[in-house]
Amino acid sequence: MSLTLRPMTEGDWSDWIAVDEEAFGAPIPPHREERFKENTEFERSLGAYDGDLLVGATAVFSFTMTVPGGPIPVGGVTAVGVLPSHRRRGVLTALMTRQLADLHERGEAVAALYASEAVIYGRFGYGRAADTMTFDIPRSGGAFVPHAPADPSLRLRIVRPAEAREVFEKVFDAALGSRPGLYARTPARWDGVLGDHEADQGGAGPLRAVVAEDDGGPRGYALFRIKADWTGNNLPDGELRLKEVFGLDPAAYALLWRHLLDRDLVSRIKAWNRPADDPLIHLLADARQLNAGWLDDLWVRVVDVERALPARRYSAPVDVVIEVEDAVCPWNARRWRLSADVSGARCTPVDDAADLVLPVSVLGAAYLGGRPLAALQAAGVVREARAGAVRELSAAMAWDPAPCAGLIF
Ligand SMILES: CC(=O)SCCNC(=O)CCNC(=O)[C@H](O)C(C)(C)COP(=O)(O)OP(=O)(O)OC[C@H]1O[C@@H](n2cnc3c(N)ncnc32)[C@H](O)[C@@H]1OP(=O)(O)O
């Protein structure tokens, strides 16, 4: 097989969809296909052709994503698929290698993705940068700690999601800079968040929304669905499925969760994509009731070490020489001196002796501030050449709050 790689055009759309449907083994409902097309930047897509046949594809969304210290441009890698007839013959490897070179040439220092399977992307230098929790809370377990915040000026308002979009946008935009991993939403992306076709509902009825506000305006919102049900004994057995909740302050956040945990006729509250440090963990009187599960959220690839490391802020001063191993992006594979304090950072190529040695995937894992390098050292993935260097870099790269994109792209 001899492969040719090129960006796809609108004319390739039906072939692209056919490859993705075959690769994922599932039809893409027409309204999702339309949304995907609206979000697609064709010039940032990449198709792999065996002769005239499209056998693999991927694309990049141009995101503005929050990293420690503020927003930066990030390439959001998506829609990776290889025809089952052509799998395990290097098609993905060719696509990833070319895509990373394109990102580098474009000057985008960082890429991020959601992985369908966690084993796929480490070999291409992506590191598991953010974790996400799933919660499955019985309504009976929703009691709060006695000192949970309450603000009498706050009130709740039930709204129709389609009519309150501006409210959600206002709250989301105010929350955007607060958590690494969150990315700015275009109108087309909001269409997706608020999409309410039957296929979006998953059998759980229409999207519902509640806003927390005071006389000054909105301070938070929650989007969710309720799958109403009854037991054989005619007892209420509904399930509330949370899509997202944002509170701009602790009292608004607590009030929204009080509402979610206390809807009549609901016996369980299920939430996905929650950050690993979700304040709910500390609001519940009995956090065992979360029945929490732990998954990978964003995978991050440092495409260009020299640009990426100074693009974020650091929690503590650090001055270390890092030897980066990177077989896929050879421009990164060398020693770099990172000198940073809380006001800014510099990263310069050096020939000095290394203080620590790590694969580029580790830099990606630590980039958003949620993966302690010290833990990766304990796992044997980071090698320390100067005593204390890992602890210094680990403390500098750590960031609060924990990263989480929360919305799969
Ligand atoms: C960001 C996103 O879009 S996530 C979505 C990813 N896509 C999917 O999950 C759709 C279904 N799967 C597929 O389309 C394909 O199997 C892909 C894209 C995952 C892999 O494509 P391939 O062309 O088969 O990958 P390629 O042949 O380049 O494999 C490279 C290496 O990765 C390994 N690999 C690739 N996919 C997997 C996997 N799912 N599980 C385990 N190993 C894998 C291969 O074994 C190979 O290892 P080797 O170098 O030791 O031989």
UniProtKB/TrEMBL annotation:
Active-site residue list: Y121 (proton donor), F409 (proton acceptor)
GO biological process per UniProt: aminoglycoside antibiotic catabolic process
Molecular-function annotations in GO: aminoglycoside N-acetyltransferase activity
PROSITE patterns documented for this protein: GNAT (PS51186)
Domain N-acetyltransferase: 3-151
Protein keywords: Acyltransferase, Transferase
Positions that bind acetyl-CoA: V80, G81, V82, R88, R89, G90, V91, L92, T93, S116, E117
Pfam families registered for this protein in UniProt: Acetyltransf_17, Acetyltransf_9, SCP2_2
Subunit structure comment from the entry: Homohexamer; trimer of dimers.
Family the UniProt entry places it in: Belongs to the acetyltransferase Eis family.
Name of the featured protein: Putative acetyltransferase
Organism, as annotated: Planomonospora venezuelensis
Lineage: Bacteria, Bacillati, Actinomycetota, Actinomycetes, Streptosporangiales
